[in-house]
Amino acid sequence: MTTQGVWRPDFFSEAREIDQAITTADQPSYKGLASPAAIRRMSRGMKMGMYAAQQALGETAVTVPDAIITGTGLGCSEDSDKFLRSMWENDEQFLTPTSFIQSTHNTVAAQIALQLSCKGYNVTHVNGASSFESALLDTLLLLTSGEHKNVLLGGIDEIAEQTYAFLQAAGYIKASGLRETVKNSLSPGVNYAEGAQFFSMGVDQTETSYGEVVDVALQNELDIPEAGSFLQDFLTTNDIQPTAIDAVILGYNGDENDDLFYNALQQELPLTTPLYYKHLSGQFDSCSAFGLAAAAFILKYQTIPPVLYWNEKNPAKTTWKNILIYNHYRGKDHTLVLVRTC
Amino acid sequence: MTALNEELKRKIIDVLNLEDITPTDIKDDEALFDEGLGLDSIDALELIVLMDKDYGIKLTDPKLGKSIFQSIETMVAYISENRTK
Predict the structure, then answer these.
(1) Min Cα separation A29/chain B (Å)
(2) Between 20 and 30 A from A65 (CA), which of A98, A263, A274, B77?
(3) Do B38 and A90 touch (CB under 8 A)?
(4) Tens digit of pLDDT for each residue in A259-313?
(5) Which site among A41, A42, A102 would you substitute to test the B interface, given the most B Cβ atoms closer than 10 Å to its Cβ?
(6) Could you tell me the domains of chain A?
């Protein structure tokens, strides 16, 4: 579930392609999300996360999940920015409580738990670009252990002015003023953004189930030639042939060095339909959660929105059973996620 | 509305991120906490920091806070008498 409303059937037809260095997420109305006193203190990440969590739970009619697991690369960086700026500007004096309290990475998961009075397992994974997949792996382990029936899983990252300025100065983010998309990118760096995606994960199939997460694999670092063996090992572990993968959702982001990995993996799956999504979500540490959301959308509606095709549409294919999601960032935090219809 | 009243209201709105509220919406004698403007204990901490940072007033006696932070009027009176900057 996402604040961008990904589960709306018309979402992808209305989606706009990102063509600037830093793009803020469209914000819905947050009235009624929490008390006005609480909302006015929340950063965008907190509001987006709580809103997306509320929608995910609402759709599955789960009132209180057994556990809440989130993944985030930078956490509540807006409040971290504020707190550090305040320390810097005021010579470490006059430190206000709100931004300090809310500057931790687990703020969103904690706030959701408080809102729901959920006293169960509550963990936030912070591991760069594989933060969300780390949370997903934790979710799968928790559910297969049999101790929990349902888990609220989410990925959240927000734009913080100073933090993103540092990333831009380091060349991770494209220069301001450029109008490049993922496909027509000429300069180094990528278009950054922000977002929150939440999923209600359960052991039992229900009427509202979108699909099944079969497995997830994480690899800290790979060279481009190793991408193929990473894939083959994953497919072998899950006893599935490459030809059985109907679509592969790739994390193409417009940075030439990053995209070479996606080209390499695509070559291992010549009969699989390649898709991409970062031209809609932008790059941020937990953006691969948007890739999972796209996969869930395809499994549910059994159609691929045209905007997701990386190249020419395969007209022969009309059913989508097995979908693979591959992501990495700057050659690190490689992840594979296999989902299928249920 | 005096200049200090106006300034203080603007600072409070900014520091506490009071959305959709302008200085003219806050009456000088309106209660800041509970049924008035609806501020809470975390806001009180923010106001203590504001008094120290912007007016050089250190509030060390928590008992005083209740009367000082009663309204804009009471805050302005205390600031006018005790400010060091």
Answers:
(1) 13
(2) A98
(3) no
(4) 999 999 999 999 999 999 999 999 999 999 999 999 999 999 999 999 999 997 6
(5) A41
(6) 11-202 (3.40.47.10), 212-340 (3.40.47.10)
